[in-house]
Specification:
Helices cover 83% and strands 0% of the residues. The chain is built from 12 helices and no strands. The chain starts with a helix and ends with a helix.
Amino acid sequence: MIPVSALAATLLSALLHAGWNLFLKGSAGDRMVDLALLGLGGSLFGCVLIAGFGAPVAGAWPFILASSAIHLVYWTALMRGYAAGDMSHVYTIARGMAPALVTAGAVLAAGELPGLGPAAGVLAISAGVMLVGVNRSAPLPATLWALLTGCAIAGYSLVDALGVRVNGDVFSYKGWGAVFTFLPISLVVIARRGPAGFAAQARGRWGRGLAAGAVSSAGFMLVLWAQMRAPIGPITALRETSVLFGAALAALLLKEKVTPRRWAGALVVCAGAMLIGFSSSN
C-alpha cells in the first residue's frame, strides 16, 4: 500500500521537475551556464541540509558516490538532447523509459514485486509517456540522447532509493547527495568557460538559476522520502506524471506543438497514475 502522503509528495515532485526542465530548455542564453547555476543552487540547498542534519551513515556513501557518477552521465545526455530537439520529445522519452527499468531493478535488488494494479499502472505510464514523446520526425541525435538520459534516470533512481533506505534519513542523505551530484558539473562548466566568462554569461540569470537548482533538489528529496515509505517502482512511475506538466508548459510557454496523439498519451499516463493510486488505497 502507498500512503496518501507519499502519493502527494510524488505528484508535487513531478510538478517541480517539469518546472526546472522548462527553465533549462527555455533559456535564451548558454544552457551549460544555466546548468552550472542550477548545480550551484542544488549544492547550496544540500549545504543547508548538511548544516541541519549532518552526515549519512557509512553504508550510504557508496550509493551517494555511485549516484553522483550516474548523474554526470544524466546531465550531459540531457543537455545534448535539449540542444538537438524539442523538450516535449527529449523529456518525455527519457522519463518514459525509467518506470519499467526501475521496477525491474527493484524486483531484483529489493525483492519488491508490485501487485497487479500497480504493475498495470507502471506499464500504462510508460506507454503513455512514449505516446507523448515519440516523434518520428524528430532528429535521430535527440532521440539517442533521450534514450541515454532515460537509462541514467533509471540508474540513479534505483541507486538513491536503495541508498536512502540504508541511511534511514532522507535529509542527511540528500544533503550530501545534492553536493556530490550538482557541484562537479558546475565546477566543470565554470572551468571550461573560465570564471570571468562564466560570470559574464550568468549575469542577470543568477536568481532563476539558483532557485531552479534548489527546486530540483527539493523535488527529488520528496521522491526519496516517498520511496522510504512505499514500493520503489510505482513511486518512480508516478513521478513520471511530470510529462503532463512538461507537455502543457512546453505548449503554453515555449509554443511547442503538442499533437492530439501526445494529449492521448497524457490521458494514458493519467490512467496509469489512477491505477497506482486506487490500487494503493485498497
